[in-house]
Structure formats: structure tokens, C-alpha cells
Design goal:
Layout lengths: L6 H10 L3 H32 L5 H31 L4 H40 L1
Length: about 130
């Protein structure tokens, strides 16, 4: 027997919870864009530090941060959401987790460059002050 749902009821239910497959694609876009934003933000902050006279070794540390921290985290999150999109059914709990992960991804993209660069520049200033 076929179920008989009104067309309006079906639309309202499906509009609230989009397909889980679309979440995997959307997370891939967020991961790629946040990685680009992280890299640009970090390059800008390091170039400002170099203009203030800090060591050119900051570029090496910046590249290591991108290669060892940002890329693996975004790949891990992208793979996890790709698996979710293949295996999970759409639910409000899945969408809450998606929104939380997107917030974490973007917060990390904008905060992590400050979190490692600020202590490094302060330490450089303290060492320079002790040597002079």
C-alpha cells in the first residue's frame, strides 16, 4: 500500500532537514575555503611580523603550521563528513553536529594564526630585551 501524504506536509518535513548527502559536499566547500582563509591570514600576519624586524624563520614555522596542522585537520573533517553523508540518514542531530563542526573549522582558521604567532613574537621581544 502506498502512503498518502499531502504534498504540503511532505515539503515542510523535507525542507527542515536537507539530505545528508548535501552535508558532505557542503563540508568539503567549508574545509577548502577555511584552509585558504587560514593560509592567507597566516601569510598576512607573518609578513606583518617580518616588517617589524622578526626573523625570517617565521616563514618556515608558518609553512610547518599549514602542512602539519591545518591540512590534516581539514582533511580529517572532510573525510568524516563524507563518511557521514554516505552512511547517515538526515536528522536534526546530524545538522547540529554539522553546524558545530563548521563553527570550529572557521574559528580555527581565524584564531590559530594568532595563537601561535603572538606568543612567538612576545618571546622574541623578551629574548631581544634580555640580550640588550
Amino acid at each position: 500500500m502506498a502512503s498518502t501524504f499531502e504534498q504540503g506536509v511532505w515539503r515542510r518535513c523535507s525542507a527542515r532537514v536537507p539530505a545528508a548527502r548535501s552535508l558532505g559536499k557542503r563540508m568539503s566547500i567549508h574545509a577548502a575555503l577555511s584552509l585558504i582563509a587560514f593560509s592567507i591570514w597566516e601569510i598576512w600576519l607573518v609578513s606583518l611580523a617580518l616588517d617589524r624586524g622578526y626573523s625570517a624563520a617565521l616563514w618556515i614555522v608558518a609553512l610547518l603550521m599549514v602542512a602539519a596542522l591545518a591540512v590534516p585537520i581539514t582533511l580529517m573533517m572532510d573525510r568524516r563528513w563524507d563518511n557521514y553523508s554516505r552512511q547517515a540518514l538526515a536528522s536534526s542531530g546530524l545538522h547540529d553536529r554539522f553546524r558545530r563542526d563548521v563553527r570550529l573549522l572557521w574559528a580555527g582558521a581565524f584564531c590559530v594564526p594568532f595563537l601561535w604567532l603572538a606568543p612567538m613574537t612576545f618571546a622574541g621581544d623578551a629574548i631581544a630585551a634580555m640580550l640588550h
